[in-house]
Design a protein that fits this description.
Layout: E1 11-16, H1 19-22, H2 41-44, H3 47-52, H4 54-70, H5 75-89, E2 93-98, H6 104-108, E3 113-115, E4 118-125, E5 131-133, E6 153-157, H7 166-178, E7 181-185, H8 197-203, E8 207-212, E9 224-227, H9 230-237
Parallel strand pairs: 1-2, 1-7, 2-3, 7-8, 8-9
Antiparallel strand pairs: 4-5, 4-6
The chain binds ligand BJW.
C-alpha cells in the first residue's frame, strides 16, 4: 500500500482526536454509548456545569483521570512517535496537535506535542491560576489549593465555551501555513476550532489526509481518506 508520508524531509503536522485512544480502551465522545451516567459531554464539560455542581464535574474527571493513568499507549500512538523520530532524523519537521486530554502521546514518546484541550493529569487553581501536575484521586471533592487564597481547584481542561490557549492557536496557525502535509486522525470533525484547522490548511494549499473509522463531518476538506482503525492502519501506511 502507498505510504502517506512519502518524503521524510517534509514538515509533517498531525492532529489527533479520541479515535486514536479508542484502542487503548478509552471511550470516544460521540460513540452511541459515549454517555456518562446519562449525561452528555456538554453537560459536564462546561464552566456553567462546574459552577452549578463542582462535585459532579470532579467525579466525572477523577473517573477519567484514573482511567487515563491505567491505560497504555497503543500501536497508533507508537506509529506517530516513530514517524516523529524518522522525520527529525531525516532533517524534516514534526508537530503533533492533540485534542486528547489523556496524555498518551507523551507517554508513547512523542516530543513535539501540544495538548490543545488540556490534560487530565493537571489541575488549576481558580483563584491564583497555578497549573500543576496532579495525579491525586481526591476522596473529598471539590479539592482546594494550598495557596494563600485557598482557591477551588478545577481540572486543567478546555471546556465548551472556553477559549483555547492563544499560544497554541498561534503555533497551530503558523504550522499549518508552513507544513507540507496535514494528517488528521480519529476525530469526528464537529468540535471547533479544531474541526476548522483542515480548512485553514487547505486555504494555504497544503495536502490534507484523514485516517478515521468513519467519515468525519468535515470530510470535504480532505484530499485523501483512509478508512479504518488507527492502531491497525497507522503502522502500515504512515511512512
Ligand atoms: C476512530 C477509532 C479508531 C473511533 N481509529 N478512528 C463554530 C461553530 C459552532 C460552534 C462553535 C464554533 N466555534 C466554537 C464553538 C463552540 C464549541 C463547539 O465546537 N461546539 C460544537 C459541539 C458545535 N467550541 C468551544 O466551545 C471551544 N471553545 C472556543 O471555540 O472558544 C471560543 C468560542 C466559544 C464559544 C462560542 C464561539 C467561540 C472549546 C472546545 C473544547 C472541547 N472540549 C472537549 C471536552 C473537554 C475535554 C474532556 O473532558 O475530555 O474536548 S469536547 C470533546 O470533543 C473533547 C474532544 O477533544 C473534542 C473532540 O472530540 P473528538 O476527538 O473528535 O471525539 P469524537 O468522539 O467526536 O470522535 C471520535 C472519532 O474517532 C469518530 O469519528 C470515530 O469514528 C473515530 N474512531 N475509533 C480511528 N480506533
Amino acid at each position: 500500500m502507498e505510504k502517506i508520508v512519502k518524503n521524510l524531509k517534509s514538515y509533517v503536522v498531525v492532529m489527533t482526536g479520541a479515535g486514536i485512544s479508542a484502542e487503548s480502551g478509552i471511550k470516544t465522545f460521540r460513540d452511541a454509548d459515549g454517555l456518562w451516567k446519562n449525561y452528555r459531554i456538554e453537560e459536564v464539560a462546561s464552566p456553567i456545569a462546574f459552577a452549578r455542581d463542582p462535585e459532579l464535574v470532579w467525579e466525572f474527571y477523577l473517573m477519567r483521570r484514573k482511567q487515563a493513568l491505567e491505560c497504555k499507549p497503543n500501536n497508533g500512538h507508537i506509529a506517530l512517535t516513530n514517524l516523529e523520530k524518522a522525520v527529525k532524523q531525516n532533517g524534516g519537521k514534526f508537530l503533533l496537535i492533540t485534542q486528547n486530554v489523556d496524555g498518551l502521546h507523551k507517554r508513547a514518546g512523542s516530543e513535539n506535542v501540544i495538548e490543545i484541550h488540556g490534560n487530565l493529569i493537571y489541575s488549576r487553581c481558580a483563584k491564583c491560576g497555578e497549573i500543576f501536575e496532579d495525579r491525586n484521586i481526591y476522596q473529598e471533592i471539590p479539592p482546594y489549593h494550598n495557596c494563600k487564597e485557598k482557591g477551588m481547584l478545577r481540572p486543567h481542561i478546555v471546556w465548551f465555551g472556553e477559549s483555547l490557549n492563544p499560544e497554541h492557536l498561534e503555533i497551530t496557525t503558523n504550522a499549518l501555513s508552513e507544513c507540507d502535509i496535514f494528517i488528521v486522525i480519529g476525530t469526528s470533525g464537529v468540535v471547533y476550532p479544531a474541526a476548522g484547522f483542515v480548512s485553514i490548511a487547505k486555504k494555504f494549499g497544503k495536502k490534507t489526509v484523514c485516517v478515521n473509522k468513519e467519515e468525519p463531518d468535515n470530510i470535504g476538506y480532505f484530499d485523501e481518506f483512509y478508512k479504518g482503525k488507527a492502531g491497525e492502519l497507522l503502522p502500515e501506511i504512515l511512512f
